[in-house]
Design goal:
Helix content: 40-55%
CATH architecture: Alpha-Beta Complex
CATH class: Alpha Beta
Largest sheet: 8 strands, mixed
Distance between the termini: 22 Å
Amino acid sequence: MTPYLSIIIPARDDAAALGGTLDELDRHREAGAVEVIVAACGDRAGTARAAAGRARLLWPRACTRAALMNAAAAAARGEVLLFLHADSSLPPEGVALIRRALADLRVVGGAFEQRFTEDHWSLRAIARINRIRYRLTGNYYGDQGIFVRAAVFRRMGGFQALAILEDLDFAQRLQRMGRSVLVPVPLHTSGRRFLARGPWRTLAFMSWLLLLRTLGLDAERYAQRYHGPADRSLGDPCRTVPQAGAQSVRR
């Protein structure tokens, strides 16, 4: 049976968070018409334990989030693709909400409202700031659970080969393909990166990256600084476990 929805999770040295996300997705798999694909790099043993029996696990050679998501999308069988971060959880009625949004044939994709899992005043404030931004612009980030019709995704050529802000770039290009909608129900995502690195410092750094991109300047050189371990300060290097025998996925 061809699944309606392919849930694609990029996981980079994040087995603990991935395990919790897959726990949350059990209810959606049991409801049927859903497949879960994890495209991973880094911690091979921990990721394999977290995904065992609950997701199809791919090990692409490239390790950027864009490359991981493109590889998983190439292997996906669903009519619709949902890109979910390894530390995010889909609302209980998430699949039905996506179906409802895409019942309008003019809609090519969209995303959910964002809410942080941790109950911290600074995260609540940042979520409100983000809400104003994406409601005004329609530009969604990956931690909102971007979804898209598979056929549209392929016409777009997937995610651009960017080391950072690939989600923003995709959301902007998606708007040129048709109507992109915001589902008015929150998807919960961890604010651990904000809390560990300093909420306002992290927000300022992200705003700086957005400004660089808006001005047509090079934001790619800051990718390593941003994508370092979520529990360490901005600027710490991102260390990945070598992937012996990693296999690429043919697109």
